[in-house]
Amino acid sequence: MPKINLTSYGAAGEVTGSCHLLEVGSFKLLVDCGLFQGGEENYKKNWQDFGFNPKDIDAVILTHAHLDHCGRLPRLFGQGYKGPVYATSPTIDLADVVLEDNFKIIQEKTSHLKLGLLYTSVDLKKLYQNWRPTEYYKQQSLGNNLSFTFHNSGHILGSALVEIRVGAKTIIFTGDLGAINMPLVKDVDYLTQADYVITESTYGDRAHENSRDRNQKLISAVQKATLNHATLLIAIFAIERTQDILKVLNDFYETHLDFSAPVFLDSPMADKATEIYEKYIDYLNPAAQDTLRVDKDIFKFPHLKITSRVEESKLINAVRPPKVILSGSGMMEGGRIIHHLAHTAPDPKNQIMFMGYQVPGTLGAKLLNGAFDFDYYGKKVAIKASVDQIDGFSAHADLPALLTWLGHFQNQPQIILVHGDKTVLPKFSQTIKEKLGLEARALIPAQTIELN
Ligand SMILES: [Zn+2]
């Protein structure tokens, strides 16, 4: 039996930058290679060395298309990686959109932070040439007595949890685990046997609001904006949450024809991602598949206006309220939403709404913590609009769902925690011990542990 070592070079003791190295004898397998996000100091970590030599890596597995899991893949190629990147087909399509969009943001940040290019368009192209589409439930051999199988992680379209086999040993990486009963994706697959489970811990200390409350909160915000002739600015994550929100708004607008406040989807990336959802209908849950087969325009309801060009985006400001604007990025790290925020924030009638976890240090987290103003290209803009959050659209499993998922194992796997805030990890490991009787510990960045 070869020696198995695990080292995390990202998302150990934090929630971004997922990058885990599994060494099986001399074979080096990387699971995810994501971007560090949230605050300047954290962002700068993307420019540091990986902590390993990319030329030595034999294969990469990507669990899903979120930037904090795929964002440094082009840099990996820029630094000499030449091997395959295994992912499901929807993940590959979505990651292409995400990385292309982020390339522009990276260039802006690069000049702002006075750093060299993180990666070039040539590096991006190398990644595109090395994708290896891999289906769910199909065992993929990597040689060396090593293989892996993707299962549905229920997080976003195409997201996978990875079951890795080394001889008789099973090691599972959850990637990000999905919430239950989401509008579009199928619920997560439950696995029953493993020796080690490396699991995400984002919501390891709390529960989400239920789905009815979540939908109602969104509709109430739209109604309030309409009655007050005000603007509702919603910070969206382009993948999954946007499509979930569009479905809820679609259902509302189609049954409330008197509501005419326009909804602007001002995110070209979200628009492209929505097309990919329509392309992979089979990957969605049965109810969503049924609706999409009957009503092909589920994401295009009356009064929805999709703005792709910058000029169209600017014109939204001239539209007299009431209006609803969906724009990204979801944590206000950059993108068109910054301009909308500058127009929306100073009026106390307006509402700013976040749709999920805000990484500490991001503008989104600052607003939710009650910031009085924000810096808009060197100018201070007062924040007088109300700031609120709807947690229930989060694509992450909450504490009860995480415990239910971990509780399905019939043997006693060791649980290794990653992708969680420093304050959440000790609480989550304690809860796992108390409720499930399983050993759980958090990984420390760049510290190797043996899985033998
Ligand atoms: Zn994710």
Describe this structure in words.
The protein is globular and about 70 Å long. It has 2 domains: 259 residues, Metallo-beta-lactamase, Chain A, CATH 3.60.15.10; 183 residues, Rossmann fold. A hairpin with a 2-residue loop joins strand 9 and strand 10. Helices cover 32% and strands 21% of the residues. The strands form 4 sheets. Strands 6-5-4-3-2-1-22 form a 7-stranded mixed β-sheet. Strands 7-8-9-10-11-20-21 form a 7-stranded mixed β-sheet, with helices on one face. The N and C termini lie close together (9 Å). With 452 residues, it is an alpha/beta fold. Zinc ion binds next to loops.
Mean pLDDT level? 93
Q: What's the level 1 CATH class of the largest domain? A: Alpha Beta
Structural class: alpha/beta
- Tell me the number of strands: 22
Proportion in β-strands? 15-25%
Helix content: 25-40%
Using the alpha-carbon principal axes, give the shape.
globular
What is the CATH third-level topology name of the largest domain?
Metallo-beta-lactamase, Chain A
